[in-house]
Write a structure and sequence with these properties.
Blueprint (H helix, E strand, L loop, with lengths): L5 H5 L5 E10 L2 E7 L8 E2 L2 E3 L6 H13 L2 E2 L3 E10 L4 E10 L1 E2 L8 E7 L12 H9 L4 E8 L2 E9 L1
Parallel strand pairs: 1-7, 6-10
Antiparallel strand pairs: 1-2, 1-4, 2-3, 2-9, 5-8, 6-7, 10-11
């Protein structure tokens, strides 16, 4: 496995597909502290694995509803994340932003909600890759990111901006 080799990503196939949804409202972003599963303890956007037959957009809405009990509005696809983990997990994630939401977020078994200023995102409490693509996404840029991880440690990264 050599993700730093460009040819690696051309033939790469995910073993899991997921989505993320970042709700932005009144200049703030809705983040979660994940309570269980991949990335437990980290700050992230709500999201998770696609169910059989589900599109990334449908998954983004469903996961936000399940994790925070709110419905995101006017979702826009903003980017794609490709993760290759040393343990073999190959994760493809489609990232969306939403223009607000219906309801007030509440804590669930999966997540603790946090509204925060986009200038105060705690990158030190997040996956290491987030600091490389999230600021550009918040500026309105579209991206494709490629990352290799050994558990929580990022070994390599590359981002194409559009």
């Amino acid at each position: 496995m050599e993700p730093h080799n460009p040819g690696f990503w051309q033939n790469w196939q995910p073993t899991m597909r997921a989505s993320l949804c970042f709700v932005i409202q009144e200049g703030k972003i809705l983040m979660i502290r994940k309570k269980r599963g991949l990335g437990a303890g980290k700050i992230n956007g709500p999201g998770g694995r696609l169910e059989p037959g589900e599109t990334p957009l449908q998954a983004a809405i469903r996961e936000t509803q399940e994790e925070l009990c709110v419905t995101p509005l006017n979702l826009s696809e903003r980017g794609e994340l490709h993760f290759q983990f040393v343990d073999g997990l190959a994760l493809h994630c489609v990232v969306f932003t939403a223009e607000g939401c219906i309801g007030d977020p509440i804590e669930t078994e999966e997540a603790i909600p946090h509204w925060m200023e986009t200038s105060a995102i705690p990158y030190h409490d997040m996956w290491q890759d987030d600091q490389y693509w999230l600021p550009g996404m918040l500026e309105g840029r579209i991206f494709k990111g490629y990352f290799q991880f050994d558990q929580d440690l990022m070994l390599s990264h590359h981002i194409d901006w559009f």
